[in-house]
Amino acid sequence: MASSTVTSAIRGAILVLALVVFLGNIMMWIIMPTDTYYNDWLLHILADTNSTFFGIQGPIMLDFTFPILFIAVLGCLYLHLGKRRSSFIQSSKRIENLKFIRRPMIVKGLGIVNLTELALFTMFISLCVWYFADYVRHWYKQVPVRSMTRGEKVWQTKLDRVAIVTGVTGNLCLTFLFYPVTRGSSILPMLGLTSEASIKYHIWLGNLAMSLFTAHGFLYILYWSITNRLSEMLKWGDHYVSNIAGEISLLCGLALWITTYPTIRRRMFELFFYTHYLYIFFIIFFILHIGIGFTCIMLPGFYLFIIDRYLRFLQSREKVRLVSARVLPCETIELNFSKSRGLKYNPTSTVFINVPTISKLQWHPFTITSSSNLEPERLSVVIKCEGSWTQKLYDIISSPSSIDRLQVSVEGPYGPASTHFLRHDVLVMISGGSGITPFISIIRELLFISSTLKCKTPRIMLISVFKNSSHLSILDLILPTSGTPSNSGNLDLQIEAYVTREKGQSKDKLQSPRTIWFKPDASDAPISPTLGPNSWLWLAAIISSSFIIYLVLLGVFTQYVVYPIDQNTNKLYSYTKKGSMNMLFICFSIMIAASAAFLWNKKQNAKEAKQIQDMEESVTSRSSNSSFHHDDVEMESLPLQSTIKSINVHYGQRPNLKRILSEIKDSSVGALVSGPKRMRQDVAAICSSGLADNLHFESISFTW
Hints:
This protein is α/β, with parallel strands linked by helices.
């Protein structure tokens, strides 16, 4: 108990320190456009940090790069200490007191948000407005001199100043753009967020950034046109801003931005997916456009994303052991992978799956339905046919001449650092179609807690909406095929299933799921934690060591190559060469640090992988002798009735969610919804209406 108290105190101190550092960083953003910064602070900073090793780049990294990377390292320590506690049971009743800031509301253009998100969004917009307005005020002071020097009218020079400030304000959005899509981030889970849930922030920031960058480019083209200087568009300034690099970056950004339009994304997902790779060229030419010195303000987001992306690349090279698949009559399959016992994840986590025989480049996210506690050696996902990629996968696995082995790679898992479902008296899980999958993982975890840990669990009501009765077979996946405790009846689970397109029960007998066993190759490895059981400590080491390596390389390069020519003027040495070398140093440093950590842990994982492989081969051998391998067999779960109190199927109707939720009088009701946008908004509207103060809304949306 004392140890837990000390750990909580340390984690609290880490959070406070991280908050102080972040507020200091935000203060720098607020003060930067002001005269105080340019006429006082900047002069002192440059004087105190004048160095032949880093030049003008040094103080910018000290003010903007180092603080965020320091917060990321603190986040790793915070999450590592949190792993020692139960990620499912550490709920607190004091969260109830903060319910009002989590109350959902529907805002046009933003979707479902809570008061905290709306407040932070408003503050960020206010920061952008302040940033824009004060920079315009500051640079308008230069207009008379610039107008006379260039021989142009005052309003034309003002247009030039507005154009540059628009781009600089876009940089503010770009600074935060990559944090939500850094899947293995330590910053997001420290704030109680996941990358999946934060994608909406990436969308907001992306739309705002591209709007500002587009306006920036348009205003400059307009300015050059009215001042008869269109030739500036072809200028590659090697000692200042490179216009061509900026134009290439903007074109890449526009191509990427246009394909994110919801209609295009839904109907032509592959076009959206492949054009998103243009972000690589967008960033490269963006750095060459403004120079590496100013880029250091935005560097932390880029840096952490590159670390995450490289670790994902290393993990994706591994081929994983696909052990079996269950084929359902509703064009749905469950894939069962072998995993190491050291791989832990929380309910609602996701993995990204790649099947090279379908597409070598496409990665698709799926919710994990298994529980790492209940099924320590299995990881399962459920995939429903809803596109060309999933249809091809279903056809391959369900074909009569099924294959012996399917080559699969995964990235992840990614999910919440902790969950708070146990703080509720009742959990109402509302799903539409394949939206039931995250709830399967929650039910299985609660089953483990109820039967193994002997803890009290909430009463569960699962409301599932399906189009056809064949989809009812998905309910057979609620319980795992093995490992279910014998006393699973402790879980109070009620299922209300709604079949909307049929008036009554079909006369045809519903087909049972069938199981297909595979023969994994000897080179296929169980899914293991990329950085081992102490992954957060390893990530902290990667961030720290790679940045130190980068600083050493940068210091040597600046001291012996740049400084003899530039003499810290930042005007004589080629911007292009300096930017290119910095990008090379960053990538090299990250590759060295991350590869060393990955290879060390891969060696440790290989020992456990060999034991798992030997055990599975022994089971496979017994199955072959019993003539069960190769053929499709039925693998029954425990009867649903052993766990579920009641199953009611309603035909030809939709659930009256408002009535159902209002009739539950328990003091704390978790209203979880996963499904179509309309369903999520309906539940959010009910929970925000104030008719029932006991409702706590949580949306699990698939926005990847």
